[in-house]
């Protein structure tokens, strides 16, 4: 047996639209950075990656561009994605290291074969030993400690930055699933549109995200909350400050929240009766950063009549699931999709 199997680092990657997480066996999650890359337009050279690059969004000079290489959970800018992955993976191992790592990288379950191959090609070009693709909903279920290999139905709702995935899993595979290209980013965009239409004020992505976190919600709060925001007045072109309350932001988020709820209902309607009964008994598990939207779990439980559980670590469930799959190569091969040949 090759020594590499014993000494190589094994890593799991949650390549998200909003954040990219890297899990290393034995050390847990060692990288958690925004999926943003700042590059020089003339040379394509990387200026910054992750948190440092995110701070540059909307603030770069003409010569530098801050790019989100992932859109709706898939590769939008292949070369930039490859550079980002190489940069992040290099934190775990040196490219010229003797023993190359085995990598599990997670992708949305509804992506096309071309999109799957693009992700795998991007990671393979970082110089790894072998790579496997794992569907995000399966990884999230594993990370949330659901019994994915048992002959019973487990329902997972994973709401990420670019996509929301709803799946019923049994015997290590997806029985029925729906992927919606609506997530935390779409919620931010809905807030931007609402503020622009209602107040004639243009705000940026970071401000919209702040509003969502501080006063956003899917279910009415007992008491309304307010947050002060700053933006550019569309009439005068000058900076302006105003205050918005949680009731307004609930209204702004109504459409993306309704889309997620309809996707959950549609998945339940297509679930075989025996597995649907299992879901009714065990409840719906919610993961992903979008699941933390205030009152969303309560709304889902109310509209479906099924108990809703929150993962212990919803932001990291996918990466943790990828890491757990790495612990057992036979299990990994059973649940992975498109395992690549050794390089």
Task: Give the biggest beta sheet.
Answer: 5 strands, mixed
Low-confidence stretches: 1-7, 339-343
CATH class descriptor name of the largest domain = Alpha Beta
Classify the secondary structure makeup into a structural class.
alpha+beta
Radius of gyration over alpha carbons? 21 Å
Kindly give the count of domains: 3
The proportion of residues forming helix, as a percent range, comes to: 25-40%
Q: What's the overall geometry?
A: flat
For the largest beta sheet, what order do the strands appear in spatially?
Answer: 3-2-1-9-10
What is the CATH architecture assignment of the largest domain? 2-Layer Sandwich
Topology, element by element:
Elements (H helix, E strand, L loop, with lengths): L3 H4 L2 E6 L3 E6 L3 E7 L2 E4 L5 E4 L1 H4 L9 E4 L2 E2 L2 E2 L2 H12 L12 E6 L5 H12 L5 E6 H8 L10 E6 L4 E7 L2 E8 L3 H16 L1 E2 L2 H11 L10 E8 L5 E7 H7 L1 H16 L3 H10 L1 E4 L8 H9 L3 E3 L6 H10 L2 H7 L8
Parallel strand pairs: 1-9, 9-10, 11-17, 17-18
Antiparallel strand pairs: 1-2, 2-3, 4-5, 4-6, 7-8, 11-12, 12-13, 14-15, 15-16
Helix pairs in contact: 3-4, 5-12, 6-7, 9-11
Description:
The chain has 343 residues and is α+β, with helices and mostly antiparallel strands. The protein is 37% helix and 27% strand. The protein folds into 3 domains: 4-34 and 71-139 and 317-335, 2-Layer Sandwich (Nucleotidyltransferase, domain 5); 146-182 and 257-310, Nucleotidyltransferase, domain 5; 184-254, Actin, Chain A, domain 4. The protein has helices at 4-7, 51-54, 78-89, 113-124, 136-143, 184-199, 205-215, 246-252, 254-269, 273-282, 296-304, 317-326, 329-335, and strands at residues 10-15, 19-24, 28-34, 37-40, 46-49, 64-67, 70-71, 74-75, 102-107, 130-135, 154-159, 164-170, 173-180, 201-202, 226-233, 239-245, 284-287, 308-310. The strands form 5 sheets. A 5-stranded mixed beta sheet has the order 3-2-1-9-10, with helices on both faces. The chain has a 5-stranded mixed beta sheet with strand order 13-12-11-17-18, with helices on both faces. A hairpin with a 2-residue loop joins strand 12 and strand 13. The chain is flat and about 65 Å long. 48% of the residues are buried. Mean pLDDT is 88; it is low at 1-7 and 339-343.
